[in-house]
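Sequence in, structure out. Go.
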Amino acid sequence: MTGRPRLVCALLGGLAVLVLGVYVRGWLLIAPQTSLNRTSDFAGSYVAATLWRDGRGADIYNLSVETAELRATGAPADHSDIPFENPPSALLLALPTTLVDGGVAWAFWSWLQLLLVLAAIVLAARVAPWPARAGPLRIAICLAALAGTGTGLLFLEAQWDGFAVLGLAAAYALWRRDRSFAAGLLMALGIGVAKPHLALGLAAFMVGRRDWRAVAGAITGVAAILLASVAVVGVGGVQSYVGALLQPSNSPVREMLGFSGLFGSWLGPGRPADLLTIAGGALALAAALWVGARARRSPWLLEPALFAATALSLLASPHLLGHDLTLLAPPLVALLGWLAVRARSWPDPASAALIGAWIAVSALALLDLAGEQNGGTGFRLVPWALIALGFGTAAAVVHSGPGDAPGARAALREA
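Output:
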C-alpha cells in the first residue's frame, strides 16, 4: 500500500493514538483520587463481591446495605448510590478484586476492560477478510475502533462491557469457521454475564438466520449463567436480582442512548415514552430478524449483517449508556475489512462514510455526555446516529444483489 492510502492510514492511526492518550491521561488524573476512583461504576460490583465473600450474599441487591458499605470504603455520601445490577454469577469474576483495596480494584478492572476490548478488536481483525498486504490499513482501523468514546468511558468508569465485546468478537470468529454452536455459546456467556439487555437484536439476528445451532448454544450459555447464579446466591438471590432490575434505574431515562433515551428526553418518563420505546424496539428487532434472513440466503453478507444487527441491538436495548457503544467495535473492524476487499481503491466512499459515521457517533456521545453533566434534558443525539447506522446498513444488506458477491470480483485488490 503506497501513496494516498498510506497517508490516510497514518492520519487515522495518529488521531486514534492521540485520543487514546487523552483517555490514559484522564485515567492517571483519577487514579490517585480516592473519592473519584471509589465512585466508579465498578464500585457496586466490588461491594457486592465483598458482601458475598463475607457470607452476606442475601444483601448484594440491598441498596441500603450497599450504600453503607460504599461509604465505609471511602466513597463520599453524595456519590454512594451505585447499585449492583448484574446477574449474581458476575460475582465470580469480580471476586478476586476483593483481595485488594477498592481503589486498586478499580485500577485493575479498568485496565482489564480496556485489554478485553483490544483483544476483541484484534481477534475480529485477524479473522475478517482483508486485501493483500493490508497491514497498515488493518492497524489504523483497529486503532480507530479502539479509540471510540465508548472505550474512554469504559476505561474510566471500569464498567463490564469488555466481556460482552470479546464474546461478540469470539462469536464472529467462530461463525467465520462455521462453528455456530460455539458462537452462540460464547456470545451468550460474554454478553449475558453483565449486559444481557444488549443482546436482544443479536438474538433476533440468529433466529432470522435460522441458525438453530447458534440459538442452541446461546440457550446453553444462558442456562449456564442461570445455574451459576443459583449456585452463588440460591433461588432467592436470583429473585432479588429480578427485583433489582424492576426498580427505577440509577440512570434517568433521558440519559439513555437508545430508543428509550430518544423518546425519554423528548417526552420525559411516562407511558407515551414507554410505548414509543417499545414500538421503536420492536421495529429494530424486526429489522435485525430481516437482516438475519437475508444473511442466511447470502452467507457472504455476514460482516455487514452482523454490524447492522449489533447497531439495531443497541437501539432496542432499554438501558444503553455511552460505554455500551464499545460493542460496535469488532463488527466495525470486520465490516471495514469486508469493504476494503471489494473496493477498487482505498479509501472508497463506503469505507470513508463508515469511518466518518464512527467518528460522528463518538463526537455525539461526548455532546450527549456534556449535556448530562450540565443538567440539560435536551434531545439525545447518539440514537439518531444509531438509527442511521442500524437501519441504513440493514437496508443495504437486504437490497444487496448477487453481483456484489465475492465471486464477482476477479481477485483481492491491494488497499
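Check: Residues 4-408 form one domain. Confidence is low (pLDDT under 50) at residues 406-415.
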